Amino acid sequence: MADYQLIIIGAGLSGLAAGIRAARFGLKVLIVEQHWQPGGLNSYYVRQGHLLETGLHAMTNYAPPGQKRAPLNRLFRQLRLSRRSFPTHEQICSEIVFPERTLRFSNDPELLTEEVSREFPGAADGFRRLLKTVREYDPFAPAPWRSARRFLDGVLPDGRLGDMLLLPLMVYGNSEEEDMDLGQFVIMFRAIFLEGLFRPAETIKEFLDMLMAHYTAFGGEIRFRAGVKRILRRGDRVDGVMLHNGERITAGSVLSTAGIPATADLADWKIDRSAHRGKMSFTETIYLLPGHRRTSIRNDRTIIFFNHGEYFAYRCPGEAVDPSWGVICFPGNFKGLPGTDPFQVRLTNAANYEVWKEAAPGEYEMMKERWRERSADQAGKIIGNFRQDVVYVDTFTPVTIERFTSKAGGAVYGSPVKLKDGRTPCANLFIAGTDQGYLGIVGAMLSGVTIVNRHLLRQE
Ligand SMILES: Cc1cc2nc3c(=O)[nH]c(=O)nc-3n(C[C@H](O)[C@H](O)[C@H](O)COP(=O)(O)OP(=O)(O)OC[C@H]3O[C@@H](n4cnc5c(N)ncnc54)[C@H](O)[C@@H]3O)c2cc1C
Fold first, then answer.
1. Which residue's CA is the nearest one to ligand 1's atom 13?
2. How far, in Å, from the CA of 431 to the mean position of ligand 1?
């Protein structure tokens, strides 16, 4: 008899959610995580007494507790977590800033509609048609790839409006360069513009602690510093995993959240590497400033998506970083959050993994400093000079992302080709998380739940 009914590779948000769902239904489950703490891309670390979140700008898919059918509340029900005892703070207002054009949006979709009519009066009808498609389209039905850019060109008379709408949707979830699949566009549009942005009242640490406690209360087991070296395969089935220390653990099924390329390597399943290689990666710099700087910088915006170029080029830059567009996030600017000291500013830019990877150790630190300056200069054009009195600064690069999550090339959003049904060539090996096609924190968790429901509970 196998040691476990299910082994889950990875204690990121998809792995934890899958674990809770499976354990809740009585499956004997083990999560194996290579690191010493959970969270994956969305984790935390402590520097100079400050807890810093690694991924969290905002959670998407906001819904107040009463809305039963909303994805966020469905997720909580599926995990048997109380949505009412999960206090949240909605965004104040976010903004997309292009040369001579701005669009504000909040968790009330009407604001974006009004802003589109104000900046692009001739596009009001087209935008209404776009909204209709977004509401009616089924992004989860099996369908060939369709170009979101071509769709936007067909409904909107002004290409700049399409570019402005694409910036937040791409930077928060698109693994392809230049264009995105229409289904993915619809998922992200609903998650960000129709449902909206929020954050938990506490930090990602308390959220992860809550998920861990819930998982273990259902009898789920977890092992940290337990990296999987191989998925044990026999023909078109798998028997379990072998850890880096040589230990073998057997299981009826294996669910991997390590992404398609890493899982294919572990299970010796042949894939077309070039098709699965995500190129989009990022640098992010966290600045901590004295609390009183909040009012002198911005206290009326949660996130600013900016682009200084004439067109928006979502692609891997030729140099280490592309500072000409990016995201400025103020994690302290959510409705009802008490003013924090220090005040945090996060700055995200597209980055080139190869350039960072090739840097020698001393050069790597110098590159960080150099690009930090250039990137802050560009962001400063929008929020002014925010670099006086910096208490603490830290930058992570595509190499950091690869080191901490095993995502090849630091590709945050995984493979451009997704496995929407979570199936692999091995009958009892499944994929969940980013490479199944749901994105962000809420998406990753929904993915974990969906794959367990679809493939693992039905077998029992
Ligand atoms: C800079 C940045 C900012 C982001 N901002 C936001 C945001 O504001 N809002 C939002 O909703 N989303 C955001 N995201 C995206 C979000 O973090 C991810 O979509 C989500 O966390 C993915 O979860 P996952 O479980 O699918 O994958 P991961 O978090 O990558 O989890 C996979 C886990 O598997 C483990 N693993 C891999 N290989 C092995 C192995 N061989 N053996 C054992 N364990 C293994 C890894 O260590 C990792 O813990 C951001 C991401 C980044 C990088």
1. 440
2. 14
Query: Is-contact 114 148, C-beta < 8 A?
Result: no
Residue pLDDT, tens place only, 179-210: 999 999 999 999 999 999 999 999 999 999 99
Spacing, Cα 89 to ligand 1 middle (Å)? 22
The count of other CB atoms within 10 Å of the CB of residue 32 is: 23
Q: Which of 271, 270, 228, 269 is CA-nearest to residue 251?
A: 228
Distance between Cα 85 and ligand 1 center (Å): 25
pLDDT tens column, 373-429:
999 999 999 999 888 888 899 999 999 998 888 788 899 888 888 888 899 999 999
Query: What are the Cα distances from residue 69, in Å, to 152, 176, 186?
Result: 28, 30, 17
Superfamily of domain 4-84+202-276+415-457: FAD/NAD(P)-binding domain (3.50.50.60)
Nearest to 280 by CA among 333, 251, 317, 306: 317
For residue 243, the ligand 1 atom closest to its alpha carbon is 42
Count Cβ atoms below 10 Å from residue 369 Cβ, excluding itself: 10
For residue 220, is it left (φ>0), alpha (ψ between -120 and 50) or beta? beta
For 338-350, give the DSSP string. PPPSSEEEEEEEE
Atom of ligand 1 nearest to the CA of 435: 26
Mean pLDDT lowest among 9-13, 140-144, 343-347: 140-144
Distance 10 CA to ligand 1 centre (A): 9
Mapped onto helix, strand or coil, the DSSP state of residue 367 is helix
Nearest-CA residue for ligand 1 atom 48 is 40
DSSP letters for 155-208: H-S-HHHHHHHHHHHHHTT--SSS--BHHHHHHHHIIIIII--EEESS-HHHHH
pLDDT at 459 over 90: no
Between the CA of 198 and the centroid of ligand 1 the distance, in Å, is 18
Q: Is the pLDDT of residue 71 over 50?
A: yes
Longest CA pairwise span in the chain (Å): 67
| Cis bond before residue 99 (omega within 30° of 0) | no
For residue 431 and ligand 1, the question of a CB distance below 6 A is answered with: no
pLDDT in tens, 279-293: 899 999 999 998 887
Q: Are the CB atoms for 73 and 63 separated by under 8 Å?
A: yes
Supply the Cα-derived Rg of the chain in whole angstroms: 22
Measured between alpha carbons, how far is 62 from 107 in angstroms, rounded to an integer? 8
End-to-end CA distance of the chain: 15
Return the residue whose CA atom lies nearest to atom 37 of ligand 1: 258
C-beta 168 within 6 A of ligand 1: no
